[in-house]
Amino acid sequence: MLLEELIGIAEKQREVRKQICVRCCMSAGCMSSQSAEVKTALEKAVAERQMGDLIEVRRVGCMGLCGPGPLVSVEPNSLLYEHVTPENAGSIIDALTSAGPIKAERCDPQHPFFTRQTLVVRANGGRIDPERIEDYIEAGGYRALHHVLTEMQPPQAIEAIIKSGLRGRGGAGYPTGLKWATVAKSVGKQKFVVCNGDEGDPGAFMDRSVLESDPHSVIEGMAIAGYAIGADQGFIYVRAEYPLAISRLQVAIRQAKQHGLIGSAIFESTFNFNVDIRIGAGAFVCGEETALMASIEGKRGQPRPRPPFPAESGLWGFPTLINNVETFANIAPIINRGPEWYAGFGTEKSKGTKVFALTGKIQNTGLIEVPMGITIREIVEELGGGAPEGAKLKAVQTGGPSGGCIPAEHFDASIDYESLTQLGSIMGSGGMVVMDDQTNMVEVARFYMQFCMEESCGKCVPCRAGTVQMYHLLAKIAARQATMKDLELLEELCDLVKNTSLCGLGQTAPNPVLSTLRYFRNEYLELLQPAG
Amino acid sequence: MKVVKPALPSPDKRWKIVDAKMRRFGYQGHALIETLHAVQQSFGYLDEEALRFVVKALHVPPSRVYGVATFYNFFTLKPQGVHTCVVCLGTACYVKGAERVLAAIERAAGIKSGETTPDNQLSLLTVRCIGACAIAPAVVYDGNVSGKQTAEQAVEKLKGYLHNAA
Ligand SMILES: Cc1cc2nc3c(=O)[nH]c(=O)nc-3n(C[C@H](O)[C@H](O)[C@H](O)COP(=O)(O)O)c2cc1C
Ligand code: SF4
Fold this sequence. Notes:
The complex is a heterodimer. By secondary structure, chain A is of the alpha/beta class. Chain A has 4 domains: 17-108, Glutaredoxin; 141-343, NADH-ubiquinone oxidoreductase 51kDa subunit (Rossmann fold); 353-436, Roll (Ubiquitin-like (UB roll)); 441-525, de novo design (two linked rop proteins). Chain A is built from 22 helices and 14 strands. In chain A, helix 7 (143-151) packs across helix 14 (325-337) and helix 8 packs antiparallel against helix 9. By secondary structure, chain B is an alpha+beta fold. In chain B, strands 2-1-3-4 form a 4-stranded mixed beta sheet, with helices on one face. The relative contact order of chain B is 0.12. Chains A and B meet through helix 2, strand 10, strand 14 and helix 18 of A and helix 2, helix 4, helix 5 and strand 4 of B. The structure holds flavin mononucleotide and iron/sulfur cluster.
């Protein structure tokens, strides 16, 4: 593949484009409400009305507003429809030529849910067909990889990522460029690039959506990383619960190989890079980087102590770079538009944009991408449309089982790594579950503790035994059978497990308890029995 | 090194699929999880014969094969019912009442999560999160995700299942 060929593919795409493009979301969310049938109905309607020369029906990835799916959009008319059914899909085509009344429900594309977003990672979501590499190329895909391979030395590529200020989107927020530099410096006969697509945090589906909607963006990011650190093999670890993401990735990898965009001598350079998929098997702890690598090696996914960090000794003992799906999806845009552009979004220490999965007791549920530094209130009230009718918002949970609940009085806090940590939660991977005043916070804490108890890999005692004890204490409190002594014991255990567990799972397992105790202590106290 | 390949356990064509997967990895130990995926996809679960075969084919100790097969929630050592119903218990589903949905299903089917009905028609499972959080609570019936489920809808759907199958 040469640059000219890449440009040629993009141009040819533009030539064959029809005047009107009707996009139908074919992501897991919308597909569960019959979007495949909707697409068939749209195609049939176009054929029956003999409008094939004018109108193209395109399968696309996630448009973000997953709650009222299936979604259908029409460009260039800027129309958006929700709750589309196979029965009323034909009327969308009729309305385009004023041949009939529109029976599908309109959705306002000018709603703040859409207009307040800044799309970097999700720019292609809902626009391109994720199963056609030509669509990705038309949208500028693989240009960043070409640029890096032909115009940049590996250190320059790393420098660009450092300058962008990008921090890992998998939860901990470690500066991505620094991590790349460390792996680049490590010596090894071989090096690996690993993409963490385990996304085990319940309530989060950003990575699923990126993989389903724009798989090539992740592959391109991985290839650029491979060049920067000197690796020729990449692995994408995807959880088995995401079958559609896996099949889209398989298609994408095959197409990229066919086009010579991964494989040997990419863009006629000396750079070779291959990507393989590894499928998880339902263990939350496998999201932890050392457990994930054990799993790729075909072993039980149990973490091991760090150091050595994967950057020095990772897969099969070789230096390994491991980043999250969303982290990789940010790479090509940063190269294409420059690190300064990227660093222009966000706060001083948290640059760029972040994708959040907005769910729970809120009007608009789905995926949003917003600049760092936006407030929780803006997200919840403006994009999210506030509480469902009659309800009052109580808290937002971020960071899943490793995070905490932020109460409504702190909704003016800015979304960045530091502020969220200060509030007793974490940025996490991007799950944002909104809770209303019907939600019992002790129950929430119990729910997460049960999760950690069941997902504990059992390797170290504080986590294995501690989560069980904490769970029983929480259950006892919830059942109104506990006394102040039990609560004190719970707090002591939180401290112990946090400070003595081997990996992040155990170290953060007490967080949901600690944060609900911090802000909703009364709910615990009300359930206690007098000592007697 | 020449790889000594054990004979397939039976002429059943599905073993060929499993064997092809192992061949792709050169019968190396790190193919274990991928191989178990292939077995489960082909046969529905991992039985002892399959595990013993994998032990021999990949030259890994039985303890490791059994260890991996039991460590990961996705693998099952028991045959599943004709139909499966998987209730998502992720946070968003939980906040939207997934526990009520599960309780209703358990009552209607007369089994607990993790069990299969005596007539082998339905297996009831729970899962940590399937990423369908925007349409919570979600239930997966025979591999198809249904969103925004109420207890009534779920029970209705299952009645259809058990009825159809009878
Ligand atoms: C229990 C546990 C679960 C984790 N799960 C994930 C996950 O699902 N996805 C992810 O990208 N990182 C997860 N991480 C973080 C990874 O260990 C690692 O930090 C991350 O993949 C690095 O990528 P980044 O620098 O791009 O964020 C998890 C960590 C722990 C301790
Ligand atoms: S903290 Fe928990 S999950 Fe992590 S190694 Fe210890 S037992 Fe395993």
